[in-house]
Amino acid sequence: MSQSRFQVFDNIRDPAACAPRLAALRNELRRRGLDGFIVPRADEHQGEYVPPHAERLAWLTGFGGSAGTAVVLLDKAAIFVDGRYTLQVREQVDTALFTPVASNDTPPSAWIGENLTAGAKLGYDPWLHTPAAVDRLARAAEEAGGTLVPVADNPVDAVWSDRPAPPRAPARPYPLAFAGVSAADKLTQLREKLAKARSDLLVVSDPHNLAWLFNLRGADLTHTPLALGYALVPREGRATIFMDEVKIGADLREALEPLADIAGPEAFPAAVAAAAAGGRRVRLDAATAAAALREIVTAAGGTADVGDDPVSLMKAVKNEAEKAGARAAQRRDAVAVARFLAWFAREAPGGRLTEIDAAVALENFRAETNALVDISFDTIAGAGPNAALPHYHVTTASNRRIGEGIFLVDSGAQYEDGTTDITRTIAVGTPTAEMRDRFTRVLKGHIAIATAVFPRGTSGAQLDSFARRPLWEAGLDFDHGTGHGVGAFLSVHEGPHRISKLGTTPLEPGVILSNEPGYYKEGEYGIRIENLVLVEERDIPGADRPMLGFETLTLAPIDLALVEPSLLTQEERAWLDAYHARVREELMPALEGADRVWLEQATRPVGQ
After folding, report:
1. Which residues form the Creatinase N-terminal domain (predicted)?
2. Average per-residue pLDDT in the chain?
3. Residue 12: pLDDT over 70
């Protein structure tokens, strides 16, 4: 297969570079009179995906995950990651320099409380933390007898000599045919919500919300079509968008000018202060607004109302055009995935394929749709023990040959009409009885979510255990959420809805989520089965309250070689057979030759 268009597999982490970088940072801290500094994996928008110039944590530590924090003191340092990255952090980071800490058990605030010395000054960049995070860190520093100190400019930037420039990719209008609702109508709905909340002004700090609200898309981030910027939306009056004007071409300017003024990002802090003056109530998004914004509003005499950005819920509930686009994108993507799976079934037994070969092949099958804008994240292609790393990223250094055992591939695509995300676990050769048992338990959990029926008002946290029960019954579990929200040609990870112990937002019709339970045996293999699902209303005869359920959007065979039929109930077998019949019906007309033969076999009834 040809080279990847959208992925880089170079091993860009150099552990030897970390020691001099850490030493340079400590020297800079001493020069400033600081005893430590907090380095989150964040930019000014607190996003999961950040541009290269904001990858301070990766530059300093070598850690390449999407979530983490380092706390650097003059005599010790720690890096905090969640359960997704427990193994990865030890492979990428020099643990003689940074002690890995499980953030689920010991968050940075707890570690600071135990390790900061009395009288110490711990620095932080107020643009890289939310108000709630700063409050937690400040309490921890105070309990240790120290002080949390904001810095006007980031000391990491001062020692990062070859730091990339901020992105300035062109932004563009997003067609109404895909958006479904005009930006003018969205602004009207938003202002009604601001009036109801008695907010005078909303600061739109999340670029996803900016893109959705104003029907624009950009290319400032890898794999996510965002234009980084802010907006101020008053309850009454004209909105203002703050974005590098180099990004705004004539077509986008023409679309935006009836809706908003346009200013450069350098004007944003002063504009927030001016808008907050006179005691105005300014809504700041608790998830993405920087603590610096709270200080600006308060200093100007305004009231910083830190809470939910109403745009997040508006965006999460897909309209009819967005739902239609999602279904079309999933069908298109399914054909590419099926062609890949058929190709893999033919090629993998020869023992010549590597993880990179598989990742590139899958991307190229998607490119052959002639509709691929980008992939939605770097493909997770893990063979054997690499499959046990939930967020594994293959590099030329880690690239394994795909041999007998399990191969896990988690991938997605960005199409103009929708965003996809799918994981399939594939047996190469004959799987062991243990692999079949674990896979089938994961499948049972997947089916439990897919078939769940629940009353309005139910949250993802209430459903999360459905996916875990078959694993719990065998003393097993997995250390990530069961599902995340997915955007409409936006981020593959979209809040606020999720199926997780932390997913407290009630599910609503129109929300798209992933359904992806898993199991990971360290050093041996990993299993995950992921489809996207759409929350929909369910008409149940005799029901005394409104009920909801899921429409499964993703269409691709689930590997029957890994299924142990004796572990499935009659209802579970019926679900799997019906799902495969639907996959066969939807995809067969788009496939040819050997791919059709493969699909017929891959979607046969369970046990045949």
Report:
1. 21-152
2. 96
3. no
C-alpha span between 470 and 475 (Å, rounded): 9
Tokens 């037994």 belong to which residue? Answer: 349
CA distance 356 to 171: 31
* Structure tokens given for 477: 């579990």
Full-model pTM:
0.95
Distance from C-alpha of 208 to C-alpha of 607, rounded to nearest angstrom: 45
State the pLDDT confidence band at 13, using cuts at 50, 70 and 90. Answer: low
Tell which phi-psi region holds residue 384, choosing left (phi > 0), alpha (psi between -120 and 50) or beta. Answer: left
Same fold, 15-159 and 172-315: yes
Q: How far is 288 from 44, CA to CA, in rounded Å?
A: 8
pLDDT on residue 65? 86
| 3-state SS string for 354-407 | EHHHHHHHHHHHHHCCCCEEEECCCCEEEEHHHHHCCCCCCCCCCCCECCCEEE
Domain boundaries, the chain: 15-159, 172-315, 320-600
- Please count the other Cβ atoms lying within 10 Å of the Cβ belonging to residue 350: 8
Q: What is the DSSP string of 182-229?
A: -HHHHHHHHHHHHHHHT-SEEEE--HHHHHHHTTEE--SBTTB-----
> Which residues, 6+ apart, have CB-to-CB distance to 315 below 8 Å?
208, 209, 212, 213, 487, 488, 490, 494
User: What tokens appear for 300 in the block?
Assistant: 């100007």
* Residue 37 burial (C-beta neighbours within 10 Å; 0-12, 13-18, 19+): buried
Whole-number Å distance between alpha carbons of 160 and 164:
9
Handedness of CA 280, 265, 489, 551 (dihedral sign): negative
Evaluate if residue 120 carries a pLDDT over 70. Answer: yes
Residue 99 buriedness (CB in 10 A; 0-12 / 13-18 / 19+): middle
If phi over 0 gives left and psi between -120 and 50 gives alpha, with beta otherwise, what is residue 524? alpha
Superfamily of domain 172-315: Creatinase/prolidase N-terminal domain (3.40.350.10)
Angle at 515 between CA 512 and CA 519, to 5 degrees: 155
pLDDT band for 196, please (50, 70, 90 cuts). Answer: very high
Q: Which residues are paired to 231 by β-bridges?
A: 204, 241
Question: Token match 């939910």: residue?
Answer: 308
Q: Classify domain 320-600 by CATH number.
A: 3.90.230.10
Relative to beta strand 36-40, strand 147-150 is: unpaired
CA distance 582 to 387: 28
456, 503 contact by CB (below 8 A):
no
15-159, what's its fold? Creatine Amidinohydrolase; Chain A, domain 1 (3.40.350)
Read off the tokens for 158: 């001062």
Q: Which residues 6+ apart lie within 8 Å of 376 measured at CB?
A: 223, 224, 411, 412, 413, 414, 419, 420, 421, 492
Q: How far apart are CA 283 and CA 274, in angstroms?
A: 15
Taking only the tens place, the pLDDT of each residue in 66-92 is 899 999 999 999 999 987 788 788 888
- Torsion sign over Cα 51, 54, 60, 63: negative
| 608 half-sphere exposure, CB direction, 13 A CA radius | 10
Which of 284, 279, 338, 340 has the alpha carbon at shortest distance from 311? Answer: 284
Q: Which residues contact 175 (CB under 8 A, 6 or more apart)?
A: 416
